[in-house]
Design goal:
Helix content is 65%, strand content 9%. By secondary structure, it is of the alpha+beta class. The protein has two domains: 229 residues, Up-down Bundle (Rhopdopsin 7-helix transmembrane proteins), CATH 1.20.1070; 136 residues, Histidine kinase-like ATPase, C-terminal domain (Heat Shock Protein 90). Strand 6 and strand 7 form a beta hairpin. Helix 2 packs antiparallel against helix 3, helix 4 packs antiparallel against helix 5 and helix 5 runs antiparallel to helix 6. The termini are far apart.
């Protein structure tokens, strides 16, 4: 009586293990629907768990369901597990062969399900069917072997052991006469097989999950390689573009200089009453100056790109820098008496303030409408550049610092739309910020971290 109790207990544990495995593989499929294989594994494990559950209820439900249907479901579940493995490895499933194996070994079980003396035949058929299906899974995985220890090899070993246990069970049944008519009364051999089933399906579930993890890892590595190659190609193309732009800009400088000199010479020799020629000459002069500004802006942007990775550091007195610029542009400067120092590049930061002043002088209504101011605010210093120009349309403020963008109100003025873009990039290198304030005129406010006195 004890072997029967042990066998039934192991069968109950096997049912619970299969139910957990079915749930785990269903979650695996739900998380990775795009991967081939997990759906078939989940279907196969559910079919096996239902079949084993019907075996467990053989004394409660009719023999057709507890024997014929149960064994067919177990074979179908194994077929789906093999199909999922082949699909996961990128091979054709081969449903005709799998279906033929299921039909061949299910047919005797179905025909003799109600014959108690045919228990040995049923055991041999189900064991051989599971062995042959598992062997197909082993063959599919071994053909994809990469000669390294991974989840594929672990699953192949488990399937190989499953083949061995099933063949051993079939051989024992074939060599020794089966006297019992109930599978649960066959003794230790059946208990051992159920114990192996618990270990096998638990290990198989873990192995399949790790296979998916390894596949995701390989896909991520491939994507990283592709992304790195694309990044290198983009960087190479960008460098070629910069080289071409620098070459073209340098080549433009010489003819632009010749044009400027020629225009000055022609202007000096024009008769005072030749206004038509003077107007045409002025148009040529404005066009060449606009082109010259574009070339200088492109060169400045390329130069800033080359130095932005390693800006120099030094202690800079903001007041002294702004005083020098105020004298150069002839604007009024308002500032604190005590020195305010910042950690900045001594070449880049003055360029930013100079670009803001140049922008203010260009668009101001009068030269007196431009002014500078600076003051310390806590741990920062704020520099304000005022002008009484037309201002910026509120709908265009968000694009003000974009490269090559020019506001509609400024189209009649020469420029390439690079000045404010360069200012923002220089300030970003210094952990600073710039914002537009139009509450009282047009004011660009620059904020920089100040050094402790």
């Amino acid at each position: 009586m004890i072997p029967e109790l042990d066998t039934r207990t192991l069968l109950a544990v096997l049912c619970m293990a299969l139910a957990l495995s079915s749930l785990a593989l269903a979650l695996l499929y739900r998380l990775h629907r795009s991967l081939p294989g997990p759906r078939d594994w989940a279907i196969g494990m559910v079919a096996i768990s239902v079949g084993v559950g019907l075996l467990y209820g053989r004394n409660v439900i009719p023999p057709f369901w507890s024997i014929a249907v149960a064994n067919v479901l177990i074979l179908v579940g194994h077929a789906f597990l093999v199909a999922g493995a082949r699909r996961f490895l990128g091979r054709s499933v081969g449903w005709p062969l799998l279906a033929a194996i299921v039909v061949v070994f299910s047919l005797p079980i179905t025909l003799y399900h109600d014959v108690p003396e045919a228990l040995g035949l049923r055991i041999i058929c189900i064991s051989l069917g599971m062995s042959l299906l598992s062997l197909l899974g082993v063959w599919a995985i071994v053909r994809e072997s990469r000669f390294q220890i991974n989840a594929h090899q672990a699953v192949a070993v488990l399937l190989g052991l499953h083949v061995f246990f099933n063949l051993a069970r079939a051989a024992q049944t074939l060599l020794e006469p089966v006297l019992a008519t109930d599978m649960l009364r066959l003794g230790p051999s059946t208990s051992t097989f159920f114990a192996w089933g618990i270990l096998f399906f638990f290990g198989l579930t873990v192995g399949l999950a790790v296979m998916v993890t390894e596949r995701l890892r390989d896909m991520l590595q491939e994507r990283l390689v592709k992304e790195n190659a694309a990044r290198c190609a983009a960087e190479a193309a960008l460098q070629e573009q910069r080289n071409f732009l620098t070459m073209v800009s340098h080549e433009f400088r010489t003819p632009l200089g010749i044009m400027a000199a020629s225009m000055d010479l022609i202007a000096c020799n024009l008769p005072a009453n030749d206004r038509e020629s003077a107007e045409e000459l002025d148009r040529i002069h404005r066009a060449s100056r606009r082109l010259g500004n574009l070339v200088e802006g492109c060169l400045a942007d390329d130069w800033l790109e080359s130095v932005s990775q390693s800006r120099r550091s030094g202690v800079l007195d903001v007041g002294a820098v702004l005083a020098e610029l105020a004298t150069e542009y002839n604007v009024v400067l308002h500032g604190a008496e005590e020195p305010i120092r910042v950690d900045a590049d001594p070449y880049l930061l003055p360029i930013a303030f100079s670009a803001l002043l140049d922008n203010a002088c260009k668009y101001a209504h009068t030269p007196e409408g431009v002014s500078l101011a600076y003051c310390r605010k806590g741990k920062t210093v704020e520099v304000a550049v005022y002008d009484d120009g037309p201002g910026i349309d509120p709908t265009e403020v968000s694009r003000l610092f974009e490269k090559y963008y020019r506001a509609r109100r400024t189209q009649h003025k020469p420029g390439a739309g690079l000045g404010l873009h360069l200012v923002q990039r220089i300030l970003a290198l210094h952990d600073g910020d710039i914002r537009l304030d139009q509450s009282h005129g047009t004011v660009f406010r620059v904020t920089l971290p100040a050094l402790e006195t």
